[in-house]
Write a structure and sequence with these properties.
226 residues; alpha+beta; two-stranded antiparallel ribbon; 10 helices; 56% helix
Length: 226
Amino acid sequence: MKQKITDIQIAPELPSHQHLFLDGAPFVVIHASLVEKFGLRIGLEIEADTIKKIVAADEVMRAKIYALRLLREEKDKTTTDEPEASRPTVKRKTYTKSEIERKLEREGFSTDAIETSVAELIRSGHIRDRKYAENWIVRRQKSNPRGKTLLKRELVDKGIDRETAEQVIATVKTEDETKVALEIAQKRAKQYKRLPTHVAKRRLHGFLARRGFGSDIVRHVLEQIF
């Protein structure tokens, strides 16, 4: 069954959107680009399938806009009359594919809209799980160092697929991991000074293991300290 477009009005609350009327009744508010994409105009009669495609395309676009809002660059609050040199650095918020999917799901978007919008954001480079994983490792090693095992577990918990997590973790050199383990072990060992050597050694072994360092690295570090 066909319906006729009887009016197309600019949405007062959303200038970038237009209000579509079918057979004299308000139908849907969609982005102006979709009006052009589907060749919509007053007097045009459209099939039910076309209407479904319009609604689906509108949902995908809304999902993308919401996701991009999460991913956009945000500046800390500042006054416009501040000198440029004193303004805070712009930081980009990053999310994994899974995190964006969960946020879109909580907003009530359909599975199809989520899959389509996320796929488009990946193709456009707005969602880059590998880059996210690389940045995560750099931040962790600076602020709260840990071994490859724990880093991988954290990445997977963040929604990074195992293959990507393993590829990124593989870029961490063994000598770098050993250096990190030795540095945090030396700091931790200071707490065990009054303990018998075998007790301190056992506790430090457990501490390093919990921080995700492998047995070979733990053994090497303990040999360096005791």
